[in-house]
Recover the amino acids of this structure.
């Protein structure tokens, strides 16, 4: 009877650990990163219409830049989703610390880096549409948002 209790307790602990691991993976690769990025993007969108005081021509030109950015961003986000599914399969097949898992994690990090580069290029592309004062305001707001995202 005592042995059965310890077996049940052991299995319960494994279930809890797996659940916590799933939550952490979800927050770090799906939920938190994605929502933080979307939150920042939402703040930036509001900034365009409020603090930058865009004129009609700027709105028109930025709409084209935004459309291309959203398309490229969506492709990278889809790659992230697929890589997360690969990660789940790799963990299921080989455990948490296998070379297969590490390769998928590297792939995920590479895609995250590409998304960051795309975002920075997008901001650089916008510079030609904005005035000097608008660019200064935008840069200040982007830096402020990055510090905020870092918990500063």
């Amino acid at each position: 009877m005592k042995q059965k209790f310890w077996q049940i307790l052991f299995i319960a602990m494994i279930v809890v650990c797996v659940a916590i691991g799933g939550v952490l993976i979800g927050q770090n690769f799906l939920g938190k990163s994605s929502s933080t990025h979307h939150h920042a993007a939402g703040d930036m969108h509001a900034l365009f219409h409020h603090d930058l005081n865009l004129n009609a021509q700027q709105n028109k030109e930025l709409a084209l830049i935004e459309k291309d950015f959203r398309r490229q961003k969506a492709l990278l986000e889809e790659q992230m989703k697929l890589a997360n599914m690969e990660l789940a399969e790799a963990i299921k097949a080989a455990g948490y610390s296998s070379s297969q898992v590490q390769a998928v994690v590297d792939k995920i990090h590479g895609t995250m880096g590409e998304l960051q580069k795309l975002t920075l290029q997008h901001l650089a592309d916008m510079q030609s549409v904005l005035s000097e004062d608008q660019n200064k305001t935008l840069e200040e707001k982007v830096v402020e948002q990055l510090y905020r995202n870092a918990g500063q």
Remarks:
- The longest helix spans residues 2-50.
- The radius of gyration is 21 Å.
